[in-house]
Amino acid sequence: MERTLKRLKEKINPDSIQDIGIITPYKAKADLLKNKLKSIRNNFKDSNIGLDIGTVDSFQGSDRDIIIYDCVCSSKGKNSKQSQRQRKGAD
Hints:
This protein has helices spanning 2-11, 27-36, 38-46, 56-59, 81-87; strands at residues 19-23, 50-54, 66-69. By secondary structure, the protein is α/β, with parallel strands linked by helices. The chain has one domain. It has a three-stranded parallel sheet. It starts with a helix and ends with a helix.
């Protein structure tokens, strides 16, 4: 995610993009991203671009110029080679 945000910041025009949202389905993942991306969030803030991270519920009724949806893959299920191929659509 950090690499994606760095590349995005290089490409966007701060005059046309002012708010970016990162949506993830779970609060724990949102909290993790907030902690891991603190320096990047400050970097965006210095450029007058808001970077909000939260769950789907926290974004209800609001809009952002760009939305990034961070999918989560659970490791609780089987992680066999067969299940990995199925997730990739190989089977």
